[in-house]
Amino acid sequence: MVIVIAGLVVLQTLGISIAGVLAFGGVGGIAVGFAARDLLANFFGGLTVYLDRPFSVGDWIRSPDREIEGTVERIGWRQTRIRTFDLRPLYVPNSTFNSIALENPSRMSNRRIFETIGIRYNDADKMATIVATSVRCWSGTTRSILDGS
Questions:
Q1: How many helices and strands in the chain, by DSSP H and E?
Q2: What is the spatial distance between Cα 71 and Cα 106, in angstroms, rounded to a whole number?
Q3: Does 85 score more than 90 pLDDT?
Q4: Residue 4 CA to chain centroid, in angstroms?
Q5: Which of 60, 97, 103 is nearest to 76 (CA)?
Q6: pLDDT tens digit sequence for 52-67
């Protein structure tokens, strides 16, 4: 910085107008600032992901806002690589995670399963047996689901 200022002072004393150089430097600084905006947004997004740790490598994440769903493979400073369930790599800039809602089903302690079981009207008297059999098939025990324990 000192060398640049000394150079400008020398140019001014030699009679060279430095107004154009200063104007070019100001415009150049603005251009560099606009160019670096996305880079800095991704860097701070990566810093946010690193500090908050909403997910880690190996977690299954999804976003209801965007079509992002898969397993996290790598978290970098600029982007995060997610492997979708059809084995496509998805590269998401880290700045995206600052502006979307994100679910992490890997960290869920409980899961709720909604299932529709169709029976005929003639079999309405057998419904309790059908439901108990279905629950036993899914969980192994009927008591833990029905009692909530």
A1: 4, 4
A2: 9
A3: yes
A4: 42
A5: 97
A6: 899 999 999 999 888 8
DSSP 44-70: HHHHHHHHH-S--TT-EEEETTTTEEE
> Dihedral through CA 63, CA 64, CA 66, CA 70, nearest 10?
40
Q: Which of 78, 96, 84 is nearest to 36 (CA)?
A: 78
d(CA 13, CA 125): 104
CA dihedral 53, 55, 58, 59 (to 10 degrees): 150
Query: Which two tokens mark 75?
Result: 């978290």
pTM of this structure: 0.58
Structure tokens given for 23:
């104007």
Strand partners, 131: none
Res. 8 pLDDT band, cuts 50 70 90 = confident
- What count of other Cβ atoms lies within 10 Å of the Cβ of residue 85? 9
> Count of CB atoms within 10 A of residue 60's CB?
17
**Quick one: CA torsion of 92, 93, 98, 104, rounded to 10 degrees?**
30
